[in-house]
Description:
The structure is a homodimer.
Chain A (H helix, E strand, L loop, with lengths): L4 H16 L7 H8 L3 H13 L3 E4 L5 E4 L8 H9 L16 H19 L10
Antiparallel strand pairs in A: 1-2
Helix pairs in contact in A: 1-3, 1-4, 2-3
Chain A binds a DNA duplex through α3.
Amino acid sequence: xxxxxxxxxxxxxxxxxxxxxxxxxxxxxxxxxxxxxxxxxxxxxxxxxxxxxxxxxxxxxxxxxxxxxxxxxxxxxxxxxxxxxxxxxxxxxxxxxxxxxxxxxxxxxxxxxxxxxxxxxxxxxxxxx
Amino acid sequence: xxxxxxxxxxxxxxxxxxxxxxxxxxxxxxxxxxxxxxxxxxxxxxxxxxxxxxxxxxxxxxxxxxxxxxxxxxxxxxxxxxxxxxxxxxxxxxxxxxxxxxxxxxxxxxxxxxxxxxxxxxxxxxxxx
DNA sequence: GTTATTATAGACCCATTAAGTCTCTAATTA
DNA sequence: TAATTAGAGACTTAATGGGTCTATAATAAC
Lengths: 129, 129
């Protein structure tokens, strides 16, 4: 069980946006260069972050992406959910009679992790300048 | 990010072994029937559980699988690790200068989940008879 | 208004993994 | 010795991750 690399890139991209760009939009081209990944590929993740309402896109010359919400509101979980989706990590494939107790336990565990990821904000790591 | 179905089957198989078989080994055939999965496929997971030291195999007629350790010692995490491996759910693919702080956060989150899974024992769910 | 610059969308490709089957071998007991 | 069991591994198929490419739309600069 692994998070996709896309999540990795998205987290790093968001960290850049939080750290460096208060107002001015940053182009995909520039972001991609910093992360060492292709612009077209990074676009996909940024589009997801837009749809999740975490960032804004500004088309046209001198456009790019900038934060939408206030920095303090953006948690690791927000970003991860934007890329990975919100489906549970475990779904019992057996058809028991009752609720699956095993699934309950694993989902409780997942909730522990999500709780922590919700508490940690991407701005916590912003460049201490 | 999802756990494989193999993990699902392994957890259910272990629950059966804990619930029903104190001494007598249970054959793959029987276990597979109860779970509604093919015996040869289930074999693969059981073999992993053997290698992880959670269960014992008994070849030959009237053979099968039985628990190895005492029930109370077998946690959800033990079973999940036996099937999924112990690699972290997140590994930063960028080559920064320093340690990746993003990775630190996600791995801390993972530790939260693992801690919980370690605390929950499969015997907790054993048939209340 | 035209042009350059940017994001958006989606088709497409390749490699890897999950999920599962099949067959052969080895060990043990009846 | 024969029946029953696990163990190992080759093999197949479908899904997913990771990534490229191209065409379109929107905007700003000139």
